[in-house]
Design goal:
homodimer; alpha+beta; DNA-binding
Chain lengths: 221, 221
DNA sequence: ACAAAAGTGTTCAGATTACACCCATGG
DNA sequence: CCATGGGTGTAATCTGAACACTTTTGT
């Protein structure tokens, strides 16, 4: 289970790539790999669907961390399945990895913690591989779908949306071109609300079609 | 295991969509779903990797069908993992599906047979879902990668390559634009060989980089 | 008034589309 | 000599990239 999110913007002057994704990790205190971090996971019950097991793992995490929002990620999708013999020294384990996206790094009270996803601490088993595959998938999907919604609140400003693209793709995007392209795609609708601050207020938007939409091609501007 | 290929061109006048992909299927003679067709598969051994199990299943198929080529598909990749309880009435089964591509529908001597993938006979279990997901993936991937190589021989003419795109995408493509784009991508190299027939000989090409290459975007012409 | 982010057009280059004819060979 | 598929160019349009200033608010 790879749970990813983006930290809030701290230094607006910092390069886009500096706002790196965070991943939810749990420290291991038993062998093997004691002291390393691991991605949360769990066994699938004998009569449990894969999605059901994912929900259960997330619900447990939410309880342990006193962060209810973890139980309802904004986006959830299956990634790869890993089954090399020897990936767990204790015996044969096949793991079906899932990607969960959250709108913000909610504070966690338990042992789980947010770690930088692009430069994580040492990870147990083949979890570094699993994490890398999740990040690749996320980056690829930003380009041809609306997955960005998974990393935002229900309503958001155009600058916030642009910030998600910049943070995940690791480069800056031209504001005017970004907005023009977005307007042409007709995916967003104004909520009517505004985000206020020590500056001109920004209109809030939402994705017109709640969930994931695949595009022919691409936000690359 | 979804093994796909394309039939040879029969009527050059027929619309591109008429050359529909074929899928390798095996008739079931036991309950449940006796009389239906199923996708080939097998159990993963206790100390066997997933890829190793796939190779074994393919090798068995190749032996039963007297078609050695089945054991070495041109392309192989993991697809989705299916684990809903009740997908097999006999008990809990989790299936990791794989996509294998072949350059041609080799003749089969055993019980396995080629079936039209887009309008298959009744399929057992959730195999229709698995097949549909494989076709979706193949179509999507043609647009942003060189998977087409999986459905061709080692060397091929530009018209054959174009035929793969037309058959899988189900529409015709302009010959001159297709070739111009391909030239710009610099993915192909001439083998020096020629394909002869009752017409001007065609130069043979191969993909310069043996395997799969992902493109920024797209052959859409 | 000043700082901060929101919002908005135009120009240029490269890419994509549409479109039709001659060429080389086998039979 | 004819049928068959192989191979090639150009003009019109669309799309993507680069680029800077004015507006609205909070303090």
């Amino acid at each position: 289970m790879v749970v990813l999110t983006l930290p809030p913007v701290e230094d607006p002057e910092a390069p886009a790539a500096a706002r790196a994704p965070l991943v939810l990790a749990v420290p291991r205190d038993h062998q093997p790999y004691a002291g390393d971090w691991s991605l949360p996971g769990g066994l699938v019950g004998a009569d449990e669907g894969l999605e059901a097991a994912v929900s259960r793992v997330l619900a447990d995490l939410a309880r342990d961390s006193h962060a209810q929002i973890l139980a309802e990620p904004r986006h959830l999708e299956q990634l790869e399945t890993f089954g090399a013999p020897g990936r767990d020294p204790r015996g044969r384990v096949v793991s079906v990895s899932y990607l969960a996206l959250l709108g913000a790094p909610v504070p966690l009270t338990g042992r789980a913690a947010w770690q930088p996803a692009t430069a994580p601490p040492p990870l147990a088993f083949d979890h570094a591989t699993i994490l890398a595959s999740a990040l690749d998938r996320l980056r690829a999907k930003l380009s041809y779908s609306t997955v960005a919604y998974g990393l935002l609140a229900d309503s958001f400003t155009l600058s916030e949306l642009q910030g998600v693209y910049e943070a995940v793709l690791g480069r800056t995007i031209d504001k005017r071109n970004f907005r023009r392209k977005l307007a042409a795609l007709e995916l967003l609708e104004e909520t009517g609300g505004q985000r206020r601050g020590p500056h001109r207020p920004a209109s809030l938007y939402r994705f017109a079609s709640g969930g994931l939409v695949l595009l022919d091609d691409v936000i690359t501007t």
